[in-house]
């Protein structure tokens, strides 16, 4: 585990989906879905005498950059399965993802195969619903506080099922009606009472200046310009330690770490009642590469050869962390159920140290801040001009 000022690395996992025909199948998480798609592609190629495929885009809501994750993970897993992924392939797999909130929040992923003429191949269609709360939140870029619901339910002796239902109701509301709260001018949280916040600061000649937050159709938006460097502060005003997975444009901030274990872990830990500052892309305990706003071709996403059409989002996901056998109640309950991007800037000094913690799988809260203005949600009513 790594500790930086008031931080350390937490265990993280990237979760991916699975699809079946003709009904909609359920996947525990995004990893299940990707495995299912890969199995389906293998069988399809074998049955039709093909050996290669190209991976197209997975389009989603305009506020989400998760299509990057789906495409990158699918490409990686196809390659691991000895399927050739080539832009010159005759067949292309592509898809869409969207949210549904009844009876409980899910993300529905649909995949299809097209040939070189652009025709959809009717015998390859996949539909699957992702049920993992963490994946639903991250795929949609939602800002939500689910820990408060859990605590309030526990206080009134609600059953575990009732607690999970209230959590799902809260998540559904946050998906359909996006909103956030601002403390001061720059600290963003899901609600005014939420203890989990993030804050963006510009770095200039060693000084840090908070970046004011604007409200754009319920999404938190900060103005960042090419050439600027920034840092991210993670606030934990709760009574428990938390692990925080910080991603930028869909890329984990440990993606470029020299330590393979840290890359696999993928999260920071913020002690109870403290604030930690992420200086940049983690390299080692003493050095980082600054978060630099740059042209898309120079962004971290592009350097990893991932899709760059939907970048511009900074997301922090908060999870319980603890030592020994003192597992937080939140974890026990939860177990039941553009144009610019951020690149790798100059090497800067950092002060991280290693500590030991257990990290939970229950999502407490997630906060997303956009630095590229998203399109308005498509389901919002449009303004009309009174007829004459």
In short:
With 388 residues, the chain is of the alpha+beta class. The chain has helices at residues 30-48, 67-80, 133-140, 147-155, 160-176, 260-265, 300-303, 329-334, and strands spanning 3-4, 8-10, 25-27, 52-59, 84-85, 92-100, 106-114, 120-130, 144-145, 181-183, 187-189, 196-204, 207-210, 214-216, 219-221, 229-236, 241-248, 251-252, 267-270, 274-278, 280-284, 287-295, 313-322, 340-349, 352-353, 358-359, 365-370. It has 2 domains: 3-13 and 141-370, no CATH class; 25-134, Double Stranded RNA Binding Domain (2-Layer Sandwich), CATH 3.30.160.
Explain the layout of strands and helices.
Layout: E1 3-4, E2 8-10, E3 25-27, H1 30-48, E4 52-59, H2 67-80, E5 84-85, E6 92-100, E7 106-114, E8 120-130, H3 133-140, E9 144-145, H4 147-155, H5 160-176, E10 181-183, E11 187-189, E12 196-204, E13 207-210, E14 214-216, E15 219-221, E16 229-236, E17 241-248, E18 251-252, H6 260-265, E19 267-270, E20 274-278, E21 280-284, E22 287-295, H7 300-303, E23 313-322, H8 329-334, E24 340-349, E25 352-353, E26 358-359, E27 365-370
Parallel strand pairs: 3-8, 4-5, 4-6, 15-27
Antiparallel strand pairs: 1-25, 2-19, 6-7, 7-8, 9-27, 10-11, 11-12, 12-13, 12-16, 14-15, 16-20, 16-22, 17-18, 17-19, 17-23, 21-22, 22-24, 23-26, 23-27
User: C-alpha Rg, in Å?
Assistant: 21 Å
Per DSSP E runs of 2 or more residues, the count of β-strands stands at: 27
Alpha plus pi helix count: 8
What is the residue-mean pLDDT, rounded to a whole number? Answer: 80
Helix content: 10-25%
**Major sheet, described briefly?**
10 strands, mixed
Strand content: 35-45%
């Amino acid at each position: 585990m790594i500790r930086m000022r008031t931080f350390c690395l937490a265990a993280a996992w990237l979760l991916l989906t699975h699809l079946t025909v003709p009904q909609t199948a359920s996947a525990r998480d995004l990893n299940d879905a990707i495995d299912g798609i890969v199995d389906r592609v293998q069988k399809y190629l074998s049955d039709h005498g093909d050996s290669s495929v190209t991976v197209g885009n997975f389009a989603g809501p305009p506020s989400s950059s998760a299509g990057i994750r789906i495409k990158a993970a699918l490409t990686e897993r196809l390659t691991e399965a000895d399927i050739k992924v080539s832009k010159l392939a005759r067949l292309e797999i592509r898809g869409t993802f969207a949210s549904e909130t009844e009876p409980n929040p899910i993300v529905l992923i649909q995949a299809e195969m097209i040939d070189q003429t652009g025709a959809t191949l009717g015998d390859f269609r996949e539909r699957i619903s992702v049920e993992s709360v963490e994946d639903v939140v991250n795929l949609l870029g939602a800002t939500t506080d689910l820990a408060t619901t859990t605590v309030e339910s526990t206080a009134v002796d609600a059953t575990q099922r009732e607690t999970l239902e209230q959590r799902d109701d809260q998540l559904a509301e946050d998906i359909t009606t996006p909103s956030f709260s601002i403390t001061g001018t720059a600290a963003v949280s899901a609600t005014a009472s939420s203890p989990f916040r993030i804050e963006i600061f510009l770095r200039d000649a060693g000084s840090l200046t908070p970046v004011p937050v604007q409200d754009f159709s319920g999404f938190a938006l900060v103005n960042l310009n090419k050439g600027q460097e920034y840092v991210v502060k993670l606030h934990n005003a709760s009574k428990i330690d938390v692990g925080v997975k910080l991603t930028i444009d869909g890329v984990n901030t440990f993606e470029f770490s020299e330590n393979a274990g840290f890359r696999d872990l993928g999260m920071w830990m913020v002690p109870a009642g403290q604030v930690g500052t992420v200086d940049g892309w983690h390299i080692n305990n003493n050095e980082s590469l600054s978060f630099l706003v740059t042209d898309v071709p120079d962004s971290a996403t592009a350097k990893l050869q991932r899709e760059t059409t939907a970048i511009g989002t900074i997301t922090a996901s908060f999870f319980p962390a603890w030592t020994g056998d003192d597992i937080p109640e939140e974890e026990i309950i939860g177990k039941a159920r553009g144009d610019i991007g951020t690149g790798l800037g100059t090497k800067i000094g950092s002060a991280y140290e290693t500590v030991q913690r257990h990290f939970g799988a229950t999502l407490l809260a997630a906060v997303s801040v956009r630095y590229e203005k998203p399109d308005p949600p498509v389901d919002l009513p449009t303004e009309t001009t009174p007829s004459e």
